[in-house]
Amino acid sequence: MQPPATASALPPARPRLRDAERGRLGELFAELCAIESPSGGERACAERVKAELRALGLEVHEDGAGAEAGSECGNLLARIPAQTGGAPLSLLLCAHLDTVPPQAPVEPVLLDGGWESANEGILGADNKAAVAVLLALARRVLAEGAPCDIELLFTVCEERSLAGARALDAASLRSDFGYVFDHASPIGEIVVASPCHFRLDVEFRGAAAHAGVRPEEGSSAILAAARAVADMPLGRIDVETTANVGRIEGGSAVNVVPERCTLVAEVRSLREEAAEAAVAEIVDCVHEAANLPDCDCDVDVSVRRSFSGYTLPAGTPAVAAAELALRGCGYSPTRISSGGASDANALIAKGLEVVNLANGTERPHEPGERVGTAALEGMLEVALALPGAVAAQTMPPTR
Predict the structure, then answer these.
(1) pTM of this structure
(2) Is 98 among the residues known to form the active site?
(3) How many domains does the chain fold into?
(4) Looking at the structure, do residues 55 and 145 belong to the same domain, yes or no?
(5) pLDDT tens figures, 143-195
């Protein structure tokens, strides 16, 4: 990688949105949110995205990642060529089509300058806000041109441990660097570090017995699981490491000593060794609980690395270009570390230089999820400024 341009490089002019452009962006965003697309069920949303891009005259390729990722469709990829005389560069912009499962029907409404759902559930701004922005960008760029080629990637099953991006064939991309808009914090923040992630699946197997007649002949798998969870290091272990038990299931009836119980846990850390140490401690707690005299259960533990973490080195050209674009749009760039992950983790693991940018959304995965119209429009302005900012930097050649 070449070093970034000097700090004296001037930011590109701020792209000014037209009133019609703002209205179309809001309408498209609301339409996309109303198309429910929980992980694995993205087909309807994917077809709407295809229709929008094809109406603009773009070809859309759908890959075969769906089967591996557990989705009814694959990732979508479209390309917008640079204007005549543009730089020999290709820039990737990425958003994901899926959401977490909606707790209620999604009915987008505009309240107090922002979009929310009228029902007590998610809105789907994570990541439909970015999907709408990329579609609006395509319309603007096709009308006015851009100084570099642009690849638009829409992934599936991001909420399932980045499954769509992990199943992507990186050879299908022409870009060596790019951006995702998938961090729910104020626009201007740039994620330069993200954690690795481990998933633990645990099954306790005890012995069933009548709970009121001969409970002493049973072995409670739920008791073993409870003892294990009580001893686990959970929550924020240190400033860079967290652990959580997200699901526990077991038993068959109130009057039966439970023979089986399963739980699912996760560990995240910006430091690989800290994550591995927390995983080892959780596994030890599981085995110790299973062997307690009043539990006496067999247990199986499966540990799987879901994705790798990253720390972007100082001077990363794509970060410098993002800072240039943000300044040009009136934002103060701030480099942050995140406890969450995005498709950037999977794409970086495939050898691309990818930066996750904050998108201004609020309360993702929760009832009351929201995005302000100013944030939605600001995201589009930043996205439109990125090609010019990238062209202003000394970036690596395309592959």
Answers:
(1) 0.89
(2) yes
(3) 2
(4) yes
(5) 999 889 999 999 999 999 999 999 999 999 999 889 999 999 999 999 999 99
